[in-house]
Amino acid sequence: MRGDLHARNLSADLGRRRVLAAVDLTLQPGLLTVVIGPNGAGKSTLLRALAGLQPAAAGTVLLGDRPVAALASGERARAIAYLPQGGSIAWPLPVAHVVTLGRLPHGERPGALRPVGRAAVAAALAAVGLAGFEGRVATELSGGERARVLLARALATNSPVLLADEPVAALDPRHQLVVLDVLKSRARGGATVVAVMHDLALAARFADRLVLLAEGRVRAEGAPAAVLTEAELARSFGIETRVTIQDERVAITPLRPLTIDENRNSS
Amino acid sequence: MNSRPAPSSDQAVPAGRALVPGLALLVVALSLASLAIGPAPIGIGTAAQALVQDLGSATIVVRELRLPRTLLALLIGGTAGLTGAALQGLLRNPLADTSVFGAPQAAALGAVLVLYFGLAGAHSWALPAAAIAGALLSIGLVVTIAGRRSTVVVLVLAGLAVGSLAGAATSLALSLSPNPYALYEIVFWLLGSLEDRSRAHLLLFAPFAALAGALLLGTGPGLRALALGEETAASLGVNVARLRLMIVVAAAVGTGAATAVAGSIGFVGLVAPHLVRPLVSHDPARTLVPAGLAGAALLLAADCAVRLIPSAVEVKVGVLTAVLGVPFFLWIIARRRAELAETPA
Questions:
Q1: Cα separation of A10 and B205, whole Å?
Q2: d(CA A74, CA A76)
Q3: CB-closest option in B5, B228, B234 to A89
């Protein structure tokens, strides 16, 4: 199945509020695309809409050349893995059980995995550094370990598209790097990977492509160095920053929030 | 942290493999005990024999008087256990049960209104229909008020409010009741008993039990995915709205029809899933069938117990399940106080 994902003139509402307005985006296989933007910019709604979980008020989302909304739910689930923000685990389930839920779209279930499913679960656990945790009770793990279990669940589907909403928000610096490495290598393996993130430094470091969303619209997109300019960060986030580029790497030092007047001048 | 030697989900827990056959044997044993208990002294062996061959008066007592009561206890308990497991899975909440949502009271109110206005006799289909409507109203209301992301506290409070409202309306019907017979009928529904239930009651309940069971047994895969929340479940291909509708309707059908034939017998559905869940690695899908069997065993045992408790008048089984069930409810709250305060339902 093709993994290129396209938003065409996509608008979405939450209640009566328009949260996404006329978004046009193409998300390519092989690339890690990071969506950034201030709180309330519509990042999570964009991700849900791309996943086919948020109905479009206008426009469409296409997977290859097929509208995601028209896919059968099983087919969509096999094509697009989605990791929501701050996911929870309701029961004290073993780690292996939770990760195996990623195989449900393939008709596999805990206790009835095919060899390919068994391999996918083992590979996903190894990728997030949790090999050997299979029998541990997921709800008794630390927050960071739990977040990685849930990521492994999304990885285990082995889908051509992986959408992750703030996958590193709960993690310590080391595990942030571990998880972003996993996402990046998933992309290098040919998947279309999209992650929503707040940490601009990490986004700059790992993203192949950045999408800057503000007030429901795409404000800028492209390579990190092109998107993360001092002027753009002032305009979209209302912050003063020092951006330097060394060895083709963007480094961002946040300085202070801009006052409302300064903010108005910059935008 | 030390690695805990819990089984991988690929292999069933050793206890889990024997669980369903073990519970089924228990249900059979309790059913035979239930057939043997009563004013006429009939041993378990004789009772079993009376089922399959004509032993004269023993066969009449066992087949005509005790068998409907036994089968009703089995079916009502089984439906309640299955319903509790599905509701707890749907709401990701160990305190969910129709009795916590005020559904038996609302079902009783529906039945009372039908009788009160003289719309139907005690064996008419209108009675379960009205009780189901009452249960549907209360369960639907609680699930809607509590919403998708509400906390356990909101869920329980909404259930309390709906139950209180149904209770108040039933009290009103009681106080305005025109004759003592209607009063007796209303009280019967509030207390809940399997005493003197006949084949007619069994035949009235069985189709609804079958419907509720068929709906609930299909919810396993969806409930399994729902353990990770509604968004994840939807992304895994589960139609969450349809799943919710199926469970709410099945819960209303099971609870309403049970209330129509045996009055309000609560808390079996709350307790049963808790007894079996640790034995199936807490898998919401594999909790369903054992919870149904455990519910059947619980109600059969309770119905045997009320016949054995020495008292002038038989203790109502609904009273016994509530007396045992409410402390259990409080025990779950006490044990999980910290996490319940923060768990979204």
A1: 51
A2: 5
A3: B228
For the stretch A168-191, pLDDT in tens is 988 899 999 999 999 999 999 999
Cα–Cα distance between B287 and B284 in angstroms, integer?
A: 5
Output phi, psi for A254, to 5 deg.
-75, 135
Partners of A118 on chain B (C-beta within 8 Å) are 10
Q: Give the max Cα distance, chain A.
A: 61
Identify which of B4, B8, B282 has the shortest CB distance to residue A91.
B282
Q: How confident is the model at residue A44 (pLDDT cuts 50, 70, 90)?
A: very high
Say if the Cβ atoms of A73 and B9 lie within 8 Å: no
- pLDDT at residue B72 tops 80: yes
Amino acid at A11: S
Given a contact cutoff of 8 angstroms between Cβ atoms, the answer to whether B299 and B73 are in contact is: yes
pLDDT tens-digit map of A233-266: 999 999 999 999 887 788 888 899 988 777 766 6
Q: What is the pTM of this model?
A: 0.89
Is the complex ipTM more than 0.90? yes
Q: Is the dihedral of CA A174, A180, A184, A186 positive or negative?
A: positive
Q: What are residue A215's phi and psi, to 5 degrees?
A: 50, 40
Kind of pairing between the strands at A209-214 and A192-196: unpaired
Question: Considering only CB atoms, which chain A residues are within 8 Å of B14?
Answer: none
For residue A96, give both structure tokens.
Answer: 């292996």
Å from A150 to nearest chain B CA? 9
